[in-house]
Amino acid sequence: MGYSCCHFRITAGGIFCFPLFAPSLAARLQLSQSQLSMIVLAGMMGQYPFATLWGLVIDHFGPWTCSLSASAFFSLGFGLFSFTVRTASEGGFLNSQYYLLIFSFFLAGSGTVASYFSCLFSASKSFPDNTGLAAGIVTALFGLSPLFLSFIGNLFFANQIDGFDAPGYLIFLAVFSGSVNLLGAIGLRSVPRHDHYAIDTISPDTAPAIPQGGSEDSPLLQADRPAIQRETVLSLLKDVDFWLLGLIMLIVMGMSEMVISNIGTIVASFVHAQPEVDRPPTTAGSQIRMISLANTLSRLMTGPVADFTSPIPIRHHPGELVFHPKRAVTRVVFVMTPCFLLLLSFAWMAWGITSSNDLWILSLGTGAAYGMIWTVVPSLTEAIWGSRHVARNFGTISYAPFLGTPIFTLLYAAVSDHVRRSQSGQGPICRGKGCWTPTFMVCTAILCGRVRCLVFCGEDGGGACEWDAWRDRANRLVALRVAPL
């Protein structure tokens, strides 16, 4: 299983390499910023519509089915994109071909989430006592994927004539990603479909009293527990914690993917003073690798740190659940941290940056926030709602970026196109800091409001904040039960 995960996860980040060839694509097909944003947005959005479906497939048939599906989506999506770009370059660009580019990148995005889910939940099901570490190590390969693929792109497909051979690179992604995920499906057939035990929650009103002298570390015996409640999707949607966590994912994931999708044009906006130097593809590639590196390191660090400071309950025989005595903090801390990272990075872009040499702050902050939120949310989902339907629940809450990504990406495109129309003779790419400064100002204001709601309570100390609400929820986890399947 580990061999399969290591090899096919490193190929799954192809859609995040779009900024590598976006400037070349714009010059070749004369695409505006709005058109480029719609194409990459289709890839980002393709990750989310079928998230719950993939979760149900994993729960019932195992992770290998998602890996097999990812192989088909990658091959068809990237292959069709390459064919369309090459055809449009030779015979003129038509509106129908533009929509075909959107559709093919949507397919590639669907392959990305199928590959991600198959790897993530095969790791969590194979190592149930260290879900944070397993998710961190395995999904770190997902963060490393754009770094690896962009390095391959710059090494073999960058040239001095066209800037970047986008059709050839996309054919490489189609063949490489498709074949490796196909082989990975074979190795994942041995992963169990279900855990031996599943954690379900019960209402605090029906929870048995803890014996005098007991604590949250005391086991809860099967003989004392009432009937287990079976949680449905409807009950999940009625839980306020679902919406609080979903709102954070909407903001953090939406803003992060806005930057990841448009880092190429952000870089290109700085090069107007040096038009004779063909730097955008190479410089964009370095920023992609920086985002990927920060993404990878944050995933590797977040998982072990979360397991050490906030270990999940230990499951013994049916009916017994023991909390670790060294549990120091709640995992909600690791959900709050990405908000602070993005706040600092976006504030720098809005008011501090002076040249393209300062973009590393944005790249590192965005990559770290993106990797951290993706690593901790699956284990937090299991800790709050149990492991019986963890893939389905995580898939459901993953719909939050499905709303956030288009909101912030289209905001960036609208501002950029508005500024570009006021420029003359600059081509399809907007030039100057004004192309994106208003967008980062708006995002910074939103993050300030979100951080305040998370941390700060009423001025008189009597107001309620989300931190208190989640901390109370963590304390109520004493009422969890372990039920045999």
TrEMBL record:
Pfam family, one: MFS_1
GO molecular function: transmembrane transporter activity
Subcellular localization: Membrane
Main location: membrane
Topological type in the membrane: Multi-pass membrane protein
Keyword terms of this UniProt record: Membrane, Transmembrane, Transmembrane helix
GO cellular component labels: fungal-type vacuole membrane
Transmembrane segment boundaries: 36-57, 64-85, 97-121, 133-157, 169-188, 242-271, 332-352, 359-377, 397-415
Top-rank taxon: Eukaryota
Protein name: MFS general substrate transporter
Organism: Hydnum rufescens UP504
